Amino acid sequence: xxxxxxxxxxxxxxxxxxxxxxxxxxxxxxxxxTIYGLGCDIFNFDAIEKLCRIKGIHPQKAQLSFxxxxxxxxxxxxxxxxxxxxxxxxxxxPGPFTFILPASKLVPKILHHKKxxxxxxxxxxxxxxxxxxxxxNPIITTSLPGEMVEEYTNPxxxxxxxxxxxxxxxxxxxxxxxxxxxxxxxxxxxxxxxxGMGQLD
Length: 201
Hints:
The protein is of the alpha/beta class. It has helices at 12-23, 45-55, 74-77, 83-92, 126-135, 155-162; strands spanning 2-4, 28-30, 37-41, 65-67, 97-102, 117-121, 139-143, 168-171, 181-184, 191-194.
């Protein structure tokens, strides 16, 4: 199903429709402040396994991230956040960054791997904000399968390619082709391990 949601003023009825889909274990394609992402409810194991099948990855070997509405979930899903790291996150989020942090015990075990880390994003995108508020908890996120191509900026083409694999593709307008900047915060000094759209101060 292709659902058109206004990027600035998301329609509550449509947001609830997507939220209900996620609560029932659906996998959706949705816009962020960078590229379109593939997402599901962080607490639905069946949905996570389905997302990983679509992506062609093993859940416990994948470097999956999740998106939050704000930093209020930070202490729930990550541990050992010192003051300087928190200030850095607060300065750069919402924004086009993924911060790698030590995972807490609340992170579903299906996502744990040897390093026990998790990537956290807070996209500067109204559709994400409203959807996360409706769902009430974070959404697992990953990029679309395959190499990032310009066609992945167009939700109608995304629907043509992945509509039979996912439950909903959100049309939130044309997306970008530059992913988020990934910053590893598990080392003594934060390290940019993928330079994307975000510029770390």
